[in-house]
Amino acid sequence: MKSSRRKFIKLAAVSAMGIGAARLGFLGDAPALAGDLPTATNFEEGLKAKHWGMAVFSAKFTPELIAKCRTACHTEHNVPDIAGQKEIKWFWGASYEESFPTEHGHYMAEKVEHRQFPLLCNQCEAPMCVKVCPTQATFQRPDGIVMMDFHRCIGCRYCMAGCPFGARSFNFQDPRPFIKEFNPLFPTRMRGVVEKCNFCAERLAIGKLPVCVEAAEGALVFGDLSDEQSDIRKALRENFAIRRKPDAGTSPSVYYIL
Amino acid sequence: MYNAKYIIPGILFFLALAFVPVIYNQGHVFEVKPELPKDQKECVLPTTEMRDKHMQLLNEWRNEAVRDGSRIFINAKGQKYVKSLTNTCMSCHPDKTKFCDRCHETVGVAPYCWDCHNLSPNQKSPIPPVASAAAGGH
């Protein structure tokens, strides 16, 4: 019938206009940003937990895998590549003896004795660095992450003296000339500032897991220690795990499964 | 008055010296024209507010983002922005020398943002080191 055809065309025209108008909606929105810049929507999908922690399947780690995780971390965070005593490290590897000096394993299983362990800031529950920081540049977030506010750091290095794990590095010089792989989305540091692993707080905020966890392909488990159903609690329930230097009393949130 | 022949010329000389900047700048219009983005009409806040208070806003942003983990800024119109100097501000104002520096150099301030923060989210390599005096002596 003629009239129904007219109606159909009218309806089609109106819907087409509607779709067109809907697509113009971006005019009132935040600017469309270049490439893979995180948007406000990404930040709304941030991961949340009561107590972030990490479990390390140390048997899966080879020096190569540690190097891979280290590169991923250091690239993400613009950590300078400096050899020697002025080294800056967020993620590194060490022997059993260096990693667990209080364990005193005399007659050890050879595979454990010769294993390299991946080390990073332990994100302690009772962090020494937070207690000693005179400017509260290092502070503990409600989700357990021990964070640094680089703006406030005065470079007194008390935190480096306080940390039982050597997880902190000091910028003795302008780090920028030593940054090999550069990530423009994350700031660099300046001379006279201490830095350390931040459990990828900037990635958790946009719903991504820490970059070392992604690079480790299952050898690192990241999750909420206060949630019984989480992957990390499952890993800790099923495997025997130790923490570094428990007698320092800082209660690390990084667990090593031997 | 004793010694008027010394004091009065002295006072006149002092006044002349004190007013040199005023006289020197008479007729000059104080005008700074930072280059505005061509594809964007409005900033996160109205222009006048940004002109007066961008430093306070950036300070609030940094404290809220770093310390409270609150990383989304919602302005009076309800638009959402990510609190980030490099990733938000510098996405629209990509050239620091044509935007930030034009005012900062005119009024003689040297903010130390760029000691750590990057100039733009598309930057290819870290900012090369500058002489410490040029960076404001930090």
TrEMBL record, chain A:
PROSITE patterns: 4FE4S_FER_1, 4FE4S_FER_2, TAT. Gene3D superfamilies: 3.30.70.20. Residues 144-173 form the 4Fe-4S ferredoxin-type domain. GO terms for molecular function: 4 iron, 4 sulfur cluster binding; metal ion binding. The keyword Cell wall biogenesis/degradation does not apply. InterPro entries: 4Fe4S_Fe-S-bd, 4Fe4S_Fe_S_CS, DsrO-like, ET_IronSulfur_Cluster-Binding, TAT_signal. This is 4Fe-4S dicluster domain-containing protein. It comes from Solidesulfovibrio aerotolerans.
UniProtKB/TrEMBL annotation, chain B:
Keywords: Membrane, Transmembrane, Transmembrane helix. It comes from the Bacteria. The chain crosses the membrane at residues 6-24. NCBIfam families: cytoc_DsrJ. This is Cytochrome C.
